[in-house]
Amino acid sequence: xxxxxxxxxxxxxxxxxxxxxxxxHSQFIKIPDREAAIRKLERIAKxxxxxxxxxxxxxxxxxxxxxxxxxxxxxxxNHEDVKDWNYIRPLxxxxxxxxxxxxxxxxxxxxxxxxxxxVLNGEDTDVLKSSLKTLGMxxxxxxxxxxxxxxxxxxxxxxxxxxxxKALEQFIxxxxxxxxxxxxxxxxxxxxxxxxxxxxLYLCEKLGIPLVFDIHHHLANHENKDWTLYWxxxxxxxxxxxxxxxxxxxxxxxxxxxxxxxxxxxxSLLLDFFHSIKGSVEQVDCMIEAKRKDEALFKLVHxxxxxxxxxxxxxxxxxx
DNA sequence: CGTTGTCAAGTAACA
DNA sequence: TGTTACTTGACAACG
Length: 320
Known about the structure:
By secondary structure, the protein is an alpha/beta fold. The chain has helices at 25-30, 34-61, 92-104, 125-144, 164-175, 180-183, 197-207, 215-220, 228-236, 267-276, 293-304; strands at residues 2-8, 66-69, 109-112, 153-155, 186-189, 211-214, 246-249, 283-288, 311-314, 317-319.
């Protein structure tokens, strides 16, 4: 079984390489010349994309083939005040540079985790509409980068609204209202407070959505702590995907702040997990969610180096 | 130059 | 009913 390690959004080792510089709405409206303000948004977005490419180069240099892009590349992209702004056209050059790079490195897996304002299971149609708009932006970015958009956006189920059963059924209802091109983007992840892996499996199996298993969330929120009870079903949700299953791993910051992410990853948790699913699948991509980003990945690899049960295929992937 | 408060958006917990 | 955390960085304002 091959395990590739990845990390999230930004690097602690590259200087001045933020892919998520921004302009807030209040800054935007303070600029009297609206055209100038929009050009400034465009300059920021271009710089963010250039830095995404720098991050991808950094990843290749370190054998890292799995990476989550930030969802903050284009500031205010879905804001009401700039709804006439075609934010993709001015980014054509930067997007095609990323596209060329990814074409030259076809093993690189890149995806998004749109933030928690994207909610698909509410009764409020305005919330659904703005969520679809935000997902549309993600899709346009993926298309611009030449990435097949299938299964590139991981989301949580959404809100409980005091009735979890009803909230799950509302997800199914809303799913029918979502264009197929957007449906295909989506993966669903178990969360740490509301929808545990059994809930998410119910939706994923019914609707044909791949399930991203988050170990840390599972430890915080479960019916049954033993994930091996669910693992075969989780794998099955990936049966029709062109991509290998992916999981998330993070360590609790402390006993008291259990749900918060720690700076680094506890290697024993990762080893336990992969030993318990050993042989069940050819490849799993494992997203490291730690405050220290790529440094946490490097430290994890270092910590695992003396581990005899695994064999390194490069600086960021191993087999067992 | 270092520190503090704010940011477009949703939900839930808590006062 | 209103405030804050979530996860969290970026940036402006302030000292």
